[in-house]
Amino acid sequence: MVRMYYMRDPVDDKTAPNFADPLHEITSDELAHKTNVICLQAEVNESVQEEILNEITHARRCNFRDIIEISPSKMGDQSISKLDIFFAEHLHNDDEIRFIVEGSGYFDVRDRDDKWIRIAVEKGDLIVLPAGIYHRFTLDQKLYIKAMRLFVGEPVWTPYNRDDKTDESAARSGYLSSWLGAV
Ligand code: KMT
Ligand code: NI
Questions:
Q1: Which positions does UniProt annotate for Ni(2+) binding (predicted)?
Q2: What residue spans define the domains of the chain?
Q3: Ligand 1 site, residue 159, Cβ cutoff 6 A
């Protein structure tokens, strides 16, 4: 089960669950409606996992895959600055497609009203953040994730931290116009 909920803002410890008070959980349909983010439930059966990956690879024409492992114990001194970079609110010019191979973590995304929704991903989950959505990532208190990154074309992972320029970027307007027509 992927747990998704509105979160406390601002947060003290980013790796804590940070549920809003009162608790406000949402379903994956609501998430898709509010943000255009696709998140598929955990699938632990390896052959089904492979099928899901093949499907997304074909549907999105991904031709690149690699593995990213994030944990303070494996990354040493680098991990703190890496984690800070991931947790700074940013967008990308391309879709961020991740399949969780091991471990868990939190993707936080902004909804239409600019409120943070936290998506707790774990082994077997697939998440697709559309280009231009403001988001951030953190490990949870288990401090470990191993994820497959999928990409279309020559991979570019550049995060653009939120500012006036990103508000006016092509990726941002593309994302906002994908909401037109949906209420
Ligand atoms: C990003 O750009 O936000 C990320 O790649 C997050 C880490 S993937 C588990
Ligand atoms: Ni990102």
A1: 90, 92, 96, 135
A2: 3-170
A3: yes
Output the DSSP codes for 139-171.
E-TT--EEEEEEESSS-----EESSHHHHTSHH
Q: Which tops the pLDDT comparison, 167 or 74?
A: 167
- Give 163 Cα–ligand 1 centroid separation in angstroms: 19
- pLDDT for 33-47, tens place per residue? 999 999 987 777 888
Per-residue DSSP letter, 22 = S
Alpha-carbon torsion 96, 130, 124, 7, what sign?
positive
Atom 9 of ligand 1 has which residue's CA nearest to it? Answer: 147
96 is in an annotated binding site: yes
Q: Which CATH class is domain 3-170?
A: mainly beta
